[in-house]
C-alpha cells in the first residue's frame, strides 16, 4: 500500500510538470563520494545538509560504494557534515545555485585528537565543478554596485552576453536575441514578439540570478542561446525586511553640450525636462509562521514616473506619466524535511498617460493615448523525496498579460484613421493600432510552452495628397471614405503601390495581397453611398493558401 501511494504521488507530480511545459526546476543537487585514508569507499556515513534557506535538515546515508545524493535543494549556502563512528567528523561549506549539481568528495580519517581551524571565505560567482557554464549573481552584490538593480544589470555583468540585438536585445554566446530563455522562479517570462523578458519581479525581492551560457541541462527547451533564471526570496526562520526610498527628478538630468546648442539655435526646440521629484517606494518583509514549517514573504514597489517629452517633427512638449504598482507574495510549507510546497503570486499594474507607439515618429497630440498593461504570474511547486532513490518535483504556472487601450480610442472611419507622412516617416491624426477592439485580440495568456497572441493587422488605404500621407483603417476591407469634396488620384505608374491591403494568416503565415484601382476618391456626405474599389488584377497568394 505504501508503495502504491508513492507511485500515485509520482504520477500526479509528473502530470503537473508535463502539463505546463513553460516551467522548469529551480532547485539544486549536492552529491559525492566518501572514502577512507586507503581510498576505500565508506558505506553508512551520515551526510547532513543544513542551510538558512532550507526548512529543517536533510540527511542521506552513503551506499555500499560510498556514494550519496541530496537533491531538490533550494539555492543558497549549505553546510554539509559527514559523520561515522570511529572516524573524524568532516564538514564542508558549499554555495548552491539554481539547477546546479555540486560534487562534494570527502576523505575521512580515523578519529583522533586534532586542532580545528575554520576558514571563512566567499565562493566565486562562476559555477565550478559542473559541466554547465554559468555565472551566479547574488542580490547583495548587484545592489552594492552602481546599477539600476534590474535584470539588465545582471545580464551586463555576465560574460558572453552582449546587448547587440534589435532594440538592445541580448545575444548570449553569439545567438540571435530572441533565442534565449528568461525565467522567474522557473517560469518562462519571455514576451512572444522579440523574445525578451517581462519585468515580473521586484528588484529588492530578487535573491539571485543565474545566467547559463553553455552546457545547459537537457530539461530546458525553446532556446539556442542562454538561460537566465531569476529566483526571488522565500522568507526564513528569522523575521527580516527592507525599505528603500529612491528619489528622481527629470531636471537633475544634465543636458549634453549638443542639446544646449540645439535648444539655443532652434526656437521650436523647447526645454522639456520637468522639475518634479518622483519617489519610488520599495519594501520587502518575510519570516516564519511556524519555524521550519511555514514561511512567508511579501514585497512591493510603487512608482509614478514623470518626465517631459516632445513630439517628433513639431517639437510640441507634453508631459508623460507611468504609474506602476508591483506586488509579490510567496509562501513555503514543509510537512517534514523531505516534502516542500511553495506558492508564488506576482501582480503588476502598469499604466501610461500620454503614451505613443513611437516617440521618434509621432508628430501630433492626437497620436497619444492612455493605456494599461496588467500582468500577473501564479506558480505552485512541489518537491519531495519518496525514497532514497525516488525523487519527485512538479510545477504548475499560469501567466497573463494584456494590452488595454493601446491605440485609437474609436473605430470611426475618419477619427480612427492613422495618417503617415511617407516623405519623413512620421505618423499623425490617430494612434497606431486599435484601442477599443475585441480585448481578446490584444491579450496573451500563457500556461503552456509558448504564449500565442491573436492579432489582426489594419487594412490600409494609400493616397497621394500634397503631404504624401497614408490613411490606415482598423480592420476591414479597403473602401472609399466619405468626406467633404476631396478627391485624390494616383498615376498609373503608382497603381501597384496605391490602395494596397495586406491580410496575414496566422496558421500558414502566408500573405494575400489585393490591389485596388489606381484611383481612390473621398466622397462627400451628400453622395450617401460607399463604393468598393475595383480590382485591377487577380488575387496574388504567397507560398501557401491561407487557412
Task: Give a topology summary.
Elements: H1 2-19, E1 28-36, E2 46-50, E3 58-61, E4 67-73, E5 76-83, E6 90-96, E7 101-103, E8 106-108, E9 133-138, H2 139-144, H3 151-157, E10 161-162, E11 171-172, E12 181-184, E13 187-188, E14 206-214, E15 227-232, E16 240-249, H4 257-265, E17 277-290, E18 294-310, E19 317-336, E20 339-355, E21 369-372, E22 375-387, E23 390-402, E24 418-421, E25 426-428, E26 443-446, E27 459-462, E28 469-473, E29 481-482, E30 486-489, E31 500-504, E32 511-515, E33 519-523, E34 540-541
Parallel strand pairs: 1-7, 1-8, 12-15, 29-33
Antiparallel strand pairs: 1-4, 2-3, 2-5, 5-6, 9-14, 10-11, 12-13, 14-15, 16-17, 17-18, 18-19, 19-20, 20-21, 20-22, 22-23, 23-26, 24-25, 24-28, 27-28, 30-33, 31-32, 32-34
Backbone shape: elongated
Helix content: under 10%
Rg is: 30 Å
Main pleated-sheet profile: 9 strands, antiparallel
User: Cα distance, first to last residue?
Assistant: 53 Å
H/I helix tally: 4
State mean pLDDT (0 to 100 scale): 76
Number of strand segments:
34
Q: Regions with pLDDT < 50 over 5+ consecutive residues?
A: 13-23, 440-547
**Computed structural class:** mainly beta
Strand content: 35-45%
How would you summarize this macromolecular structure in one to three sentences?
This protein has helices spanning 2-19, 139-144, 151-157, 257-265; strands at residues 28-36, 46-50, 58-61, 67-73, 76-83, 90-96, 101-103, 106-108, 133-138, 161-162, 171-172, 181-184, 187-188, 206-214, 227-232, 240-249, 277-290, 294-310, 317-336, 339-355, 369-372, 375-387, 390-402, 418-421, 426-428, 443-446, 459-462, 469-473, 481-482, 486-489, 500-504, 511-515, 519-523, 540-541. It is mainly beta.
